[in-house]
Amino acid sequence: MNAHTIDIYHDRKLNTSRFMIHPNSKLRRAWEVMTVCLVLYVCVMIPVIIGFQFVDWARLNGMNTFIDVYFVTDMVMTLRTGIVSNGEVVMDPKRVARKYFHSWFIVDLISNFPLVLFVSSSGKSLKIVKLQKIPKLLRIGRLLKYLREYAKYYNLIVSFLGLAMGLHLFACLWASLFNECYGPHGEVFCSQEELAPMYVQCVHSIMLMFLGIGESTTYSSIARIQNPAVDADIELYYMSITVFMLGTVFTSFLFGNILALLMSWDQQKAQFRNRMDMIKAEMKYYELPEELQHRVRRNYDYLWINQRAYSDMMLLNQPGISKPLKTTIALHLYKDLLKTVPFFAGSDSRFLGKVCLALETAVYLPGDTIIYCDDIGKEMFIVRKGLVEILISDPKNSEKRIYLRDGNFFGETALVIDVRRTNTVRAVTICDLNVLSKNAFNEIAAEYPEFGERMKRTVIKRQLDNMNIQSPTEKAKVHNQLTLVVEKSLKQRRMSVSLRTIYRAKKLGDKLKEIADRASKPIRQTTELLSLRLGTNVDMDDDEEDDDFDYEDDYSDDMSFTIRDAPPFPPLTEESEEEMARRESNSIRTRKRNQLEKFQPHDKRGSDPSSMLKM
């Protein structure tokens, strides 16, 4: 298999045999290429051999024998090659054989049967042997399968291939209707040198009928090559009608595919024009100034010229693409650019992949202000294409500028420190920039602290270079101050993003473990403690389910959990057992007192229990 080929199938190891061949193996691929070449040969030569029987084809017997042996071997190879079923590679010989017997086995058996060993050498018998090879033409399906997998313009190629094969087959069939090359006793009048001109004239006649501008009587012009007195037979008219009908279908299919291909080539341009028409209409509706409309049109013209009418982010945000595949695409798009940035150089692919996925694209026209002085910085810019100028505020020289080109970056200080911009940055030419936002940087820096350290060193170095401090002592002092400020800012950002999440996750895990431990205590202990708390006896069998308790944990601001069957009761102690016994004794005395009160009269005479017997 090619090193760049991605196997999208799943291998099954059940019921496999060591003599089975994987359908994507190099051996099978090479065998398929050889099969396709022989199928092309068969599709070309079998109609010619059948149509021009006056030619002695004995010189091709060796090639024909090789092809017969090859296709018999191919039947064995098919039985020993795994199949793909529902995206799964099946290597079970029984399932492979069952599928082959229900598909191509009968066709292959008929076309590869060695009939020549069982017939005589008469001309009629040899003609039957030649006709036996016609089922081999059905193997063109192998060729179409190969084209469907590897051809870019499959429909167009199939259309041209179908037209060519149709012309070839009908031309050979048209030539087979001539009987002037044979005498009444089977003698041959035509020479082998007449094969080429006769074939060309047959193809010409079939082409005219395919296009609907030929007639069946064109046979007369071909037939008179051998016998000028011959008229067209009725079979030729039937033949011409069939060719007319099939030619209409073939040409319609061919021209339809050509038109679809041309439309697909212009589809993106048509979509761009429709978008521009909508934008122009909207700008006209809002009465935008002409100069502003011109700038908008220039922006979209740049996107179209540079094939950026659809941004890179559209490809990365397509639904259904897995995250590893998105990372690979992003690395291909931005990896070379990131290597030019010092604090990205030398990083591993996993880290660079996260950075590439976080990058956004932006286009600025000449004269556009990318960064305004005194604005609060929220992103860093990397110049992908174009030229930008940094306007430096200098009391001595108000025109001082620094120019940045492809691969340069600016605005990285805003990612580390919450400060205002100190310079204004403008686009000199049309600029294609990649943008890393502060939020994306915070997430990456929290996950990769070493990246934050590299950014810290880069920012401190740039700030010291901009200050242009000459004194080593003062420079060291400023360096320490900048280090404290940057470290404090990075620490706050990490705590505000990732570490707080990790802390909450850890605390949540501890709580869940504690709840699980409580829930694993014997249910009888929980029931007894419940009766203790309620002051009553609650009899419950071991098979009975416990009552449901809701345990809400609000240790975080935005998280609450309801845990069933886990009452937060402390374990029983000796003191609590004594208390339970005392409560039980009091409960018994209370019940007896209540029973006695039921038999006492409500008047004074009934104060003596014996009075009830006197009444």
TrEMBL record:
Which stretches are tagged as biased composition: Acidic residues?
539-557
Q: Which GO terms describe its biological process?
A: regulation of membrane depolarization; sodium ion transmembrane transport
- Cite a single GO MF annotation: voltage-gated potassium channel activity
Q: How does it sit in the membrane?
A: Multi-pass membrane protein
Keywords in alphabetical order: Ion channel, Ion transport, Ligand-gated ion channel, Membrane, Transmembrane, Transmembrane helix, Transport
Q: Is this entry keyworded Membrane?
A: yes
Predominant location: membrane
Gene Ontology terms: cellular component:
HCN channel complex
Q: Does the keyword Electron transport apply?
A: no
What parts of the sequence cross the membrane? 30-55, 101-120, 153-178, 236-265
Q: Which domain of life is it from?
A: Eukaryota
Region listing for Disordered, in residue ranges? 538-615
Q: Which CDD domains match?
A: CAP_ED
Q: Where in the cell is it found?
A: Membrane
Q: Which InterPro entries match?
A: cNMP-bd_dom (IPR000595), cNMP-bd_dom_sf (IPR018490), K/Na_HCN_channel (IPR051413), K_chnl_volt-dep_EAG/ELK/ERG (IPR003938), RmlC-like_jellyroll (IPR014710)
Q: Where is the Cyclic nucleotide-binding domain?
A: 343-462
Ranges annotated as biased composition (Basic and acidic residues): 594-607
A Pfam family cross-referenced in the UniProt record is cNMP_binding
Report what the protein is called.
Answer: Voltage-gated Ion Channel
